[in-house]
Amino acid sequence: MPQHVLLDKTVRLRIIRHQATSGDVGPVFYLRDLPDDKTLHEFAERYQGMDPSAVKACIVLARTASDLLTAFETMLSKHGLSQGRFLTLIVMNRRPDESITPSELAEKVGVTRATMTGLLDGLHGDVLIERELDHRDRRRVRVRLTRRGREALERVLPDYYRRTSQLMARLEEGERRQLLGLLAKVNQGLPRFVDPE
């Protein structure tokens, strides 16, 4: 199966910076009225290099991904969390007894350091994480989950995993593996979408 290829770090940072400066709310695809096949084929006659089936597959994928993110945010809001707060906690929960630096967290979650600082401020205010000085370099701060943070995840994760399992229940195991392979191929094409040749 093809490996999942992440966007080059400089490309990802450029996208993140664009979102921060443009006021873009993030990865949301707003279009509801998707073009039909007839419209796409008419566009292909007008615009050189357009592949109607490629465009259709791309916009349906984007629409589905956006709907999934909206559903994800809705589920998390019922638990008093945003996607950013949840992802920060869940990454920290991989090694709940260890601390991590904010810059490492920002890299793993996929946000800027400034965004991570804001997320950590909120989580610290809710006593879900605690800050401590790095014993090797007291100029550096590290963060770790508190007991309250772990308890919050123990309340959220069963619901999250149950809903995720229900979401994917229509796909058989083989179809899920096939989907992962197809998505990995799409992911490999993302750098060309950001910086076309």
Task: Provide a brief overview of the structure.
The chain is mainly alpha-helical and 197 residues long.
Task: Please provide the count of β strands.
Answer: 2
Contiguous low-pLDDT stretches (5 residues minimum) are 1-25
* Share of helix, binned: 55-70%
List the helices and strands in order: HHHHHHEEHHH
What average pLDDT do the residues reach? Answer: 84
Strand proportion: 5-15%
Q: Roughly how many Å apart are the termini?
A: 26 Å
Shape: elongated
What radius of gyration results from the CA coordinates?
20 Å
For the largest beta sheet, what order do the strands appear in spatially?
A: 1-2
Q: Tell me about the biggest sheet?
A: 2 strands, antiparallel
Count of alpha and pi helical runs = 9
Class derived from helix and strand content: mainly alpha
Task: Write up what this structure looks like.
Helix 2 (37-46) packs across helix 3 (52-77), helix 4 packs across helix 5 (102-109) and helix 5 crosses helix 6. The chain has helices at residues 9-22, 37-46, 52-77, 83-92, 102-109, 113-125, 147-167, 173-188, 190-194; strands at 129-133, 141-145. With 197 residues, it is mainly alpha-helical. The protein has a two-stranded antiparallel ribbon with strand order 1-2. Strand 1 (129-133) and strand 2 (141-145) form a beta hairpin.
Structural key phrases:
197 residues; mainly alpha; two-stranded antiparallel ribbon; 9 helices; 5% strand; elongated
